[in-house]
């Protein structure tokens, strides 16, 4: 009788350890997934901010350059800056 009780206790302990490990792994997976989502959102926000800054910088540079350089070359450079700005806006 004592052997059966000992055997059942060991089986319960094994089942308990297995369930504990399963729950720990599940919790770790959730935590990792949440961190991944936070990182993804942070990268997206950072990228949008930098894109806006780059677009503003190109616009300002293009306008300054247009005022400084006259003639055909100035027009061509202004067009290039404008195309770059539109590319960033569409991005």
Describe the SSE topology.
Blueprint: H1 2-68, H2 71-90
Helix pairs in contact: 1-2
Keywords, please?
91 residues, mainly alpha
Describe it.
The protein has helices at residues 2-68, 71-90. Helix content is 96%, strand content 0%. It has 91 residues and is mainly α. The protein has one domain (2-90).
Concise account of the structure shown:
With 91 residues, this protein is mainly alpha-helical.
Separate helix tally? 2
Give the terminus-to-terminus CA distance: 75 Å
Bulk shape: rod-shaped
Strand-residue proportion: under 5%
Strand tally is 0
Nearest-angstrom radius of gyration? 31 Å
- Percent helix range: over 70%
Number of domains: 1
